[in-house]
Specification:
This protein is mainly β. The chain is built from no helices and 5 strands. Strands 1, 2, 3, 4 and 5 form a 5-stranded antiparallel β-sheet that branches.
Length: about 60
């Protein structure tokens, strides 16, 4: 699962990096998914929560 994202909105002067801390946040089951707290840095800052589905198990 990706752990870091770069989000850029040039027309709005927004440049963000969203990242999850190290750790294993995978959840297995009938519908496997990954979830984690995230932090946002760059032109804006904050915290949040990310949940991802649809990735192949490796």
């Amino acid at each position: 699962y990706p752990r870091r994202w770069q989000i850029t909105l040039p027309g709005f002067d927004v440049n963000l990096e969203v990242s999850a801390p190290a750790g294993d946040y995978r959840n297995s089951g009938l519908y496997p998914y990954w979830e984690s707290p995230v932090s946002v840095t760059g032109s804006h800052s904050g915290v949040g929560y990310m949940e991802l589905t649809g990735y192949q198990a490796q």
